[in-house]
Amino acid sequence: MAFTTALSGLNAASNNLAVTGNNIANANTVGFKRSRSEFADVYASSIGGVSSTTPGAGVRVTNVAQLFNQGNLQFTENSLDIAISGEGFFTLAAAPNDQNNISYSRSGEFKLNKEGYVVNNQGKALLVYKPNGTQISDGFSTGVTQPIQISSIQGLPAATEKVEMKVNLDASEPVITLPFDKDDQNTYNTQTSATLYDSFGTSHTLTTYFVQQGVVGGNPTWRAYHSIDGDAVPLQNGDAYGELVFDADGQLQTPADGVFDLSDYAILPATGAKDLTINQMNYFGSTQVKEKFSVNELTQDGLPAGRLTGMDIDDEGIIFARFSNGGSTTLGKIALTRFPNPNGLSKMGDTTWGQSANSGEPIPGEAGANNFGIIQSGALEGSNVDLAAQLVNLIVAQQAYQANAETITTENTIIQTILNI
User: Strands, E, within 217-340: which ranges?
Assistant: First the structure.
């Protein structure tokens, strides 16, 4: 009996050594979770139960449990390195075109494959929630996951619809009474231009001409004429110009919101692009004081076509594509998954796990919500192995192995003594 008891101890100590050695071997494996051997004593029982004087029959390994406590974050400055700080797993498909075979991981070493999909080192595709539009405000379909293919993303152009121009008009400029003619500099005081874009991303030039009218109805008044690519563009109401009326402090008074709506501009020669519709030519915040004419702010919301220049991921897991035209678009939101019992997950190797009967059903979610951790881009979660503690465990396991081997040696000596009597 002592032989089998000691042999069970050797097996248990050997298992402990193997588990500890595996922890040490993976001390630098990204997303690795250390394990520990768990044991239970063994007693031989009968119908009458276990006697109070019955010696134990040894030990058995009941479980090799993984411990899912947080690993330290290691910052890499690579935007496709992603770490989860808190609870949850990345959701991975076996391949970009195979979402029926799902696994889960804490390793965030992602990169692009030759087709432009975001994958890990084993070619498994990172799954994200599908965006409902191009902006965060459009939301995400949290029940629909998909891989991300960067190569198919383009910086699409956007037609200009809004121009904001904050100017100062020089109060010392002379009043002009001549009929306005954009080709005659004597008929306007000053001018400025802005670049607009049509639906194809082609640039066009918007020019605004300012004409001093003097004091009209008790208030300083200017006229603003507009042209696009040299063609006059009246207001939507048919007026050839808009009037900018200032108060005694030089602040824009009329229009109160500073906005004029320009008539649609049909692009000539025709290219097939949509008409330019500047429905907000906004001068809000403009002034008239005795200082040289200046354009203090000038913005417009159009974009030319662009190429992909990079990706950004925020702490909620929203992935943005950045383009050379200054635009950006949302590509998706990283799909996280957690389990009622992560210790029950099936170990699949390559720092991945699979659902099992003991893990419970997967709970999908988003970073920062419903007990899920947050996303850290440009960082990796290191192994949670404490190397110093594992070396101590190694010594303890070695001593246990030697002690059980000594038990066998002692039992053998006793038997030999008995046989030699």
Answer: 219-228, 231-232, 242-246, 252-254, 259-260, 280-282, 287-289, 294-300, 308-313, 318-323, 328-334, 336-338
Q: Which pLDDT band, with edges at 50, 70 and 90, does 151 fall under?
A: low
Q: Please give the span between the terminal C-alpha atoms of the chain, in angstroms, as a whole number.
A: 21
CA–CA dist 226, 19 (Å, integer) = 77
Structure-block tokens of residue 312? 């950004």
pLDDT computed for residue 51 by the predictor: 58
179 cis-preceded (ω within 30 degrees of 0): no
Helices 387-419, 2-25: inter-axial angle, 10-degree rounding: 160
| Residues 215, 175 contacting (CB under 8 angstroms) | no
Which domains, from first to last, does the chain contain? 2-69+386-419 (no CATH), 73-150+308-381 (no CATH), 162-300 (2.60.98.20)
Q: Could you give the CA distance from residue 204 to residue 198 in angstroms, rounded to a whole number?
A: 8
Please, which residues bridge with residue 415 across strands?
Answer: none
Please check whether residue 203 is in contact with residue 244, taking contact to mean a CB–CB distance below 8 angstroms: no
CA diameter of the chain: 137
How far is 396 from 407, CA to CA, in rounded Å?
17
pLDDT tens per residue, range 39-48: 898 877 655 5
Closest CA to 151 of 108, 119, 104, 198: 119
**pLDDT 10s digits, 270-308:** 999 999 999 999 999 999 999 999 999 999 999 998 888
Which pLDDT belongs to residue 326?
82
- How many Å apart are CA 140 and CA 155, to the nearest integer? 20
Q: Calculate what percentage of the chain has a pLDDT beyond 90.
A: 68
Residues 327 and 321: their CA atoms lie apart, in Å, by 8
- The Cα 421–Cα 408 span in angstroms is 20
CA angle 157, 158, 161 (to 5 degrees): 155
Backbone φ and ψ for 8, nearest 5 degrees, come out as -65, -35
Task: Report yes or no: 320 and 79 within 8 Å, Cβ to Cβ.
Answer: no
- Enter the pTM of the model: 0.72
- Kindly state the tokens that stand for 100: 């029926």
